Structure formats: structure tokens, C-alpha cells
């Protein structure tokens, strides 16, 4: 017959307290609990990614490229008791669908427009988007003691939604490579034979495409923090002249539909480890925001040349291997 150990206690100032052995066991459990918190909390924060609240109806996790909303349903007091829970669940699903629709309308599509404007401009786009969100997935259901039901739902921005919203005319952009010399002020090609004034250093677009650490770059990470840049479904990267360095002209549409034009993160280290750009991304700093919605990114001419030369060896731009770091 197995023996069951009974904790021993001692009388201490009128209170029963565990003996030394039991205090040691309790301390070990406490240490284990602290260790679990240390291990789990960073993982939970990492999983959260870059989250943006949209109005009062929902939020977007731009790292995971999903819209998340909650729907609430109350039971019909006039319905039979056995049918009230099912009725409340049905109302909660309908409420969630309304919230998803309102949330997606407020999403920034480009630096000039939001999704609602695109839906208003085309019945085809509107019907495709509304059809896509009807396929939402319920990720949690809560039955309240009051009889109310809450459902958390999510819809991916990628796939059907992006296919409906992105333009059809992708491609056609030419990488800025070939050893050109550019004026550092205006970005134009420096005329052959023209003397270079003292103190002026021309930008060489045909420099080595290898990375500083050796090998080739596998993606692009742009640090946009401190510039007020906001996330969008179809942002662009421009140089100081306003020329497109990254956008629909340099992307294969199937990749944009499948994973989105850009991934978003809040931390450079997490971004560089993201499978979208790993294992050796080129990391540069943005210069300023552009567009009414502050969704486009402006970089300097030298960085623009570096990006296109890096992409010439392994065209990560075509495959949307680009991430923005936002505040």
C-alpha cells in the first residue's frame, strides 16, 4: 500500500505555517510559476504582432494579415427556453458579420484611398468583398450567465479579399541597375563627360549586390518608426524624386494576393526573423511618409539604388518579401 505524504505544519506566533521542507516545495512551485510567465509572455507578445484598432467595430493584425471582430447576441425572451441559446448565437453571428463589414470599409487600401471607396466605385468589388467576409471563421464562443452569446471571428485580408481589391495591371517596372551615375540632388543620370563639382559625390547604381554579411539579400526590411507611417493593403516605396521603387509595378500579382504586398511588425529583430524575409534581409531606414493616408514610404536615392541592385540577384521584390517596421 502506497504511503501518502501529509504536509507538516508548525505553530508560529499563533499561526500554522508549513515546516522547512514544505516551504521549500512551495518555493519551488513559485519559482516554476515565475519561470513559466517569463517563457510564455514574450511568446504571447510576439504572436500578437502589429495590431491596429479600426473604429469601434474591430481590429486588424497586420502581421498575421487578418481582421478580428466580436459579435454579441441576446436571447429572445419570448422564444422557448430550449431555443434561446441557438437564437442568441445566430444574432451574435449576424452582429459579427456587420462589424466585419464596417471594419473592412475603414481599412486603408492605398495611401490615397480606403476600402469603402473601392467598394462604392464598383459593384463587382463590393459583391466580392461582401461574399468573402461571409466566410468568416469563429475562433471563440462565450456563453454568458445572462443568456447572451459572444463570438470572436476573423477573416483573412489575403486571398479573396485582396484579389477583389488589388488592380489587375501588375508588373512592367524595370530595376534601376546597370552602373549608372546619378546626381545626388535631383536623382537624374549624370551626363557623360560632365565635370563633377568639388564636394559632390555621384550615386553609383551598379555597385555590388552582395550583402554586407556575404551572400545575397533574401528580403527587405524598412524601418519606418518615428515618421507617422500607417499600414495599408497596397503601399508603395518611392525615392526622393517620386519614382516607384517598390509597388505593383515590381510585384507578381499572385504573390501579393497570397501574402499581401507588405508585412508589418513593431520590432526589427522579429521582422528580420520573419519567414517572409529571412534569412538575410536588407535593412534600411525610411526618410519620410507620403500620401494623404501616410501609407507610402520615401527613401533616399542611394538606398533606392541599393535595393534594386540587391533585388537583381534574387528578385525578392517580385515575391513581396518586404516588411515595414512601424511604431
Break the fold down into its secondary structure elements and pairings:
Elements: E1 9-12, E2 15-18, H1 20-48, E3 51-54, E4 58-61, E5 66-73, H2 81-105, H3 115-121, H4 123-133, E6 137-143, E7 149-156, H5 160-165, E8 181-182, E9 203-204, E10 220-223, E11 237-238, E12 244-246, H6 253-259, E13 263-265, H7 268-273, E14 282-285, E15 288-290, E16 296-298, H8 301-313, E17 322-325
Parallel strand pairs: 10-14, 10-17, 11-16, 13-17
Antiparallel strand pairs: 1-2, 3-4, 4-5, 5-7, 6-7, 8-9, 11-12, 15-16
Total number of distinct structural domains: 2
Structural class: alpha/beta
What percent of residues are in strands? 15-25%
* Low-confidence sequence ranges: 9-14, 32-46
- The percent of residues in helical segments reads 25-40%
Distance between the termini: 63 Å
Number of strands: 17
Radius of gyration from CA coordinates: 27 Å
The geometry reads as elongated
Largest sheet: 5 strands, antiparallel
State the order of secondary-structure elements, H for helix, E for strand: EEHEEEHHHEEHEEEEEHEHEEEHE
Strand order of the largest sheet: 3-4-5-7-6
| Multimeric status of the protein | single chain
Number of helices, counting only DSSP H or I runs of 4 residues or more: 8
Average pLDDT number: 84
Amino acid at each position: 500500500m502506497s504511503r501518502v505524504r501529509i504536509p507538516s505544519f508548525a505553530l508560529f506566533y499563533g499561526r500554522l505555517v508549513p515546516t522547512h521542507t514544505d516551504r521549500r516545495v512551495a518555493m519551488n512551485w513559485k519559482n516554476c510559476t515565475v519561470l513559466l510567465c517569463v517563457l510564455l509572455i514574450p511568446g504571447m507578445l510576439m504572436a500578437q504582432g502589429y495590431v491596429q484598432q479600426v473604429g469601434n467595430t474591430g481590429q486588424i493584425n497586420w502581421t498575421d494579415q487578418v481582421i478580428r471582430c466580436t459579435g454579441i447576441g441576446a436571447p429572445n425572451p419570448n422564444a422557448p427556453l430550449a431555443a434561446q441559446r441557438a437564437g442568441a448565437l445566430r444574432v451574435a453571428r449576424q452582429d459579427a458579420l456587420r462589424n466585419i463589414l464596417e471594419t473592412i470599409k475603414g481599412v486603408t487600401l492605398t495611401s490615397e484611398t480606403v476600402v469603402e471607396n473601392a467598394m462604392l466605385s464598383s459593384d463587382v468589388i463590393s459583391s466580392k468583398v461582401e461574399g468573402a467576409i461571409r466566410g468568416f471563421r469563429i475562433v471563440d464562443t462565450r456563453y454568458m450567465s445572462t443568456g447572451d452569446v459572444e463570438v470572436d471571428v476573423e477573416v483573412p485580408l489575403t486571398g479573396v479579399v485582396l484579389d477583389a481589391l488589388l488592380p489587375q495591371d501588375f508588373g512592367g517596372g524595370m530595376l534601376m541597375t546597370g552602373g549608372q551615375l546619378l546626381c545626388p540632388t535631383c536623382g537624374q543620370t549624370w551626363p557623360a563627360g560632365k565635370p563633377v563639382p568639388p564636394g559632390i559625390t555621384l550615386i553609383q547604381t551598379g555597385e555590388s549586390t552582395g550583402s554586407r554579411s556575404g551572400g545575397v539579400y533574401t528580403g527587405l526590411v524598412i524601418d519606418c518608426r518615428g515618421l507617422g507611417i500607417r499600414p495599408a493593403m497596397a503601399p508603395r516605396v518611392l525615392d526622393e524624386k517620386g519614382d516607384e521603387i517598390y509597388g505593383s509595378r515590381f510585384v507578381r500579382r499572385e504573390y501579393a494576393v497570397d501574402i499581401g504586398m507588405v508585412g508589418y511588425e513593431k520590432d526589427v529583430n522579429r521582422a528580420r526573423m520573419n519567414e517572409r524575409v529571412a534569412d538575410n534581409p536588407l535593412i534600411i531606414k525610411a526618410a519620410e511618409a507620403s500620401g494623404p493616408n501616410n501609407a507610402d514610404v520615401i527613401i533616399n536615392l542611394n538606398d533606392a539604388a541599393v535595393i534594386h541592385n540587391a533585388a537583381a540577384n534574387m528578385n525578392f521584390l517580385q515575391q513581396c518579401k518586404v516588411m515595414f517596421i512601424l511604431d
